[in-house]
Every structure is written in C-alpha cells, then in structure tokens.
Amino acid sequence: MNAKITVGVVAVALLGVLVALPLWSEDDPGAAKPGPEHVKLAKKAGAYDVGCKFTMAPGQPPSESKATAEFKSILDGKYLQQTFAGEVGGMKYTGMGVEGYDPATKKHTFYWCDSLSTTPMYAVGESKDGGKTIENRTEMTDPDTGKSTKIRCVTTQKSDDEFTFAMYGEQGGGEALMFELAYTRKK
C-alpha cells in the first residue's frame, strides 16, 4: 500500500475517533446512564465469605464447603462483576460472572463461566418485588447426556450484607435444588 494512502487512512480513522468521542461522553444526555436497578447491583460491591451446599443427588445430604467472592461495579456502574474461589467435591473451583439489568427489556441478566465447565451460562429474568428476589432462567446442555436442561437461578437479598444464590435444575422428571450459596459480606 502506498505510504500516502496509509497516512490518509490513519488520518481519517483518527478524525473519526475524535469526532465520535463526544458521542461516548458521560456528559452526553443520550448516553445510557445507570438506573435504580444498577444502583442496587452496585451496592453488592465488596468481599464476601460464602457458605456452599451442593446437592449431588436428590435425597442425599448436601456436600458443604467454604468459598470467597469479590464483587466489583464495572463499566460506569452498569454491571457487577463477581470473581469466586472455593471447592466443589474436594476440587478447586474458580468462576466469574457479570450481572446486569437491561432497561429496554426490563430484564435482569446474568452471565457465568467457571473452571469446571467449558459451557458458559447466560440467564435472563425478572424481579416481582423490586429487586429483593431475582429469578433468572436459562437452558443449558447437560455435559453427561448432551441434552438440553432447564435451569432456574434465584438470588434473594436478605440485607445489605447477606444474600443467597440457589440454582435448580431438571432431575428425575421435576425440578431439584442443585446448590445454594450463602454470601456474607466481610467486615
């Protein structure tokens, strides 16, 4: 490519970025701003101890373990990122997730990936009580059977410093609790 053409292309690209910067400005009245749901999410930012109960099979007592989690408000307060570290069945387990709220659809969103799976989870849901309880639903491929299975996740805010996250899945023709995580903010 001719040097003059290359310089011209770079100059046009830089000019385009400089012209577009005001469109991305936080001061722009058209820019998406965090709403009340985002403010509630951001309040969860901080470090937590997590009590974990994993149900390996219906009717069996749950396997219990401890974990830690760190929540951080990201992308100008529009999302909440979680990093998680603990054990499941004696195996080291790490994961990360991003929670959000889409004002256009009025839906809560949740994305999760972890060290024990190569299948990410994306769930969408709603709250019927102003955000105290959020119920997200999705379908995932069961790695053992290769079949699609319905998943329901319920987050229940107990106080500013405590909440639970429970995941239910299809088992034996019905829905069963797979695990429950009890988060308590570190002081």
Number of helices: 2
N-to-C SSE series?
HHEEEEEEEEEE
Gross morphology is: globular
Average pLDDT confidence is 84
Q: Examine the coordinates and then state which fold CATH places here, giving the name of the CATH topology of the largest domain.
A: Lipocalin
Spans of at least 5 consecutive residues with low confidence: 5-26
- Rg of Cα set: 21 Å
| Class of secondary structure makeup | mainly beta
* Subunit arrangement of the protein: single chain
The strands making up the biggest β-sheet line up spatially as 1-2-3-4-5-6-7-8-9-10
Q: Give me the CATH architecture of the largest domain, please.
A: Beta Barrel
Q: Kindly report how far apart the N and C termini lie.
A: 60 Å
Helix content: 10-25%
Biggest sheet, open or closed, and with what strands and sense? 10 strands, antiparallel, barrel
Strand content: over 45%
Q: How many structural units, i.e. domains?
A: 2
Fourth-tier CATH superfamily name of the largest domain: Calycin beta-barrel core domain
Count of DSSP strands:
10
Description:
The structure is a single chain. By secondary structure, the chain is mainly beta. It folds into 2 domains: about 1-30, no CATH class; about 30-185, Lipocalin, CATH 2.40.128. It has 2 helices and 10 strands. It has a 10-stranded antiparallel beta barrel with strand order 1-2-3-4-5-6-7-8-9-10.
